[in-house]
Amino acid sequence: MSAVPGSLHTVLGAGPAGTSTALELARRGHRVRLVDRSGSGEPLNGVERFTGDVGTVDGALAAIEGADVVYHCVNVAYHLQVDVMPRVQEAVLGAVARTGARLVVLDTLYPYGETHGEVMTEDTPWRATTAKGRMRAGLDETYLAAHREGRAKVVLGRSADFVGPRVLNSTLGGAVFPAALTGGEVLVLGDIDLGHSYTSILDVARGLAVLGENPAADGRVWHLPTAPARTTREILTVLGDLVGHPLRITAMDGPRAFGPFDETFMNSYAELFYQHTEPQIMDSTAFQREFGLTPTPIPATLDETLEWYRNFLASRAAS
């Protein structure tokens, strides 16, 4: 285990995944640095905030100075990803190659492309045809090649759609939970009677922390612990039970602006809308067996998320 006393774990990106990972690492007793361009945000117990731009090797080197393990949770605006994410990879990979820090990368299901309902495991072929899918697959090939060739120590953790505290820009996010709590219109995408995997953001954090503590995991892709797939309708029914009333659901059959997603975002997301017109089922059995980490049941995740959204809406109303 690399988690020696006093070791520094540096998390790049302070979105929901990065913030949750930093908090999980601090809970586990690590020294934690959380890096983003602003270096500001909510106070996080046990976490040092750091202002940094990891878009260049020099910026990445400054951000990860002294780190034993680096977690790449950086994301950028959807319409900029194809151009920007490869540059971020080049900078971060170059930095860890120079310092010797291990690199844990948060990854997506995009490289698999359309599966026509096939269950996705770590052995599923990468058949992406979209620009973002091909970009992500190319990044992953580069990460794995860097590890294989001894230039860096890298491990990838893939997640399905996020759900959980702090998650706003997700299918189960800002267009769902506030409306569920207030009796408003719950907006969802595509065919909600198809099986769909959702990964608790807290399980993302736990999974990445486990990968960061286990160098033997390096050199491959892992599916982060994810509860068994259910239909989105089933999940919304559970959510309705938790809030005490049936939800007013509107399912959108195409990529149009709604809720937290503006037209720019949805135009860029359109190529990935297949994720809502075919089953999206991810299997994380390999991770669960190897590391003994059980995914959080969907009802518990929904309950945690509702509690966060209640506080979030109350704080917004008070400000």
Automatic annotation (TrEMBL):
Gene3D superfamilies per the UniProt record, alphabetical: NAD(P)-binding Rossmann-like Domain
Domain named NAD-dependent epimerase/dehydratase: residues: 13-218
Pfam families in alphabetical order: Epimerase (PF01370)
Membrane spanning residue stretches: none
InterPro entries xref list: Epimerase_deHydtase, NAD(P)-bd_dom_sf, NAD(P)-dependent_oxidoreduct
Coiled coil: none
Protein name per the record: NAD-dependent epimerase/dehydratase family protein
Organism: Streptomyces carpaticus
